[in-house]
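lol ok so funny story. i was supposed to be doing the assay writeup but got distracted and ended up predicting the structure for this chain instead. priorities right. anyway since i did it might as well share w the group, maybe its usefull for someone
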Amino acid sequence: AQEMKRATQLEQALRNAIITDAVEVHFQPIVRLTDEMVIGFEALARWHDPDLGFVSPAVFVPLAEERGFIDALSETLLRKAVEAALSWPRDLFLSFNLSSAQLMDPGTADNILSILGRAGFDPSRLELEITETAVMTSAETATKIISDLKQAGVRISLDDFGTGQSSLGRLRDFTFDKVKIDRAFVSRISTDRPSEHIVKAIVAMCDGLDLEV
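and the output, tada:
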């Protein structure tokens, strides 16, 4: 009962935070290893509630998905991220995470493109990160969304590669621009030989497929 009560309290607070624009966007630099240049930033959702304190996105994002208001949250965050990115040098790109619920919603591509259009942000400066599980959940809709976004110039990045449902066939069937190797492997490459070999293999394969990694 205590859990239920907290979930309801969280949900109310989060709905409120979305309405009052209280969920913030923080930016994490994306660095090119060859010359250590910052080439873009990934938008991360951060929420500090006056009563609940800092709430982790690992808690509030799944809650928003489960309760059906992830679209509202995501659109607010994308709008904020895009508005911030407008003031950056033009050669920097913005990376943004799409949720699995959004990849099941046929209206997603239009929503994203209209946010970009209203802000006057060039779609080719946006990179959307999606996970394999999300693609799998509703493959047909996801394929359509991805192809519509790519036609507009948006780049698509496959997140958390190497864990869960990772299938090499998916790299061939979907036209991704980039693969992000899951941190479970990357964080251990200097201490764990199997992780090192897995990362080397993924890098070599992506090189052959002309994918950034």
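The CA atoms of residues 14 and 45 lie 12 Å apart. The chain is about 45% helix and 20% strand.
back to the writeup now i swear
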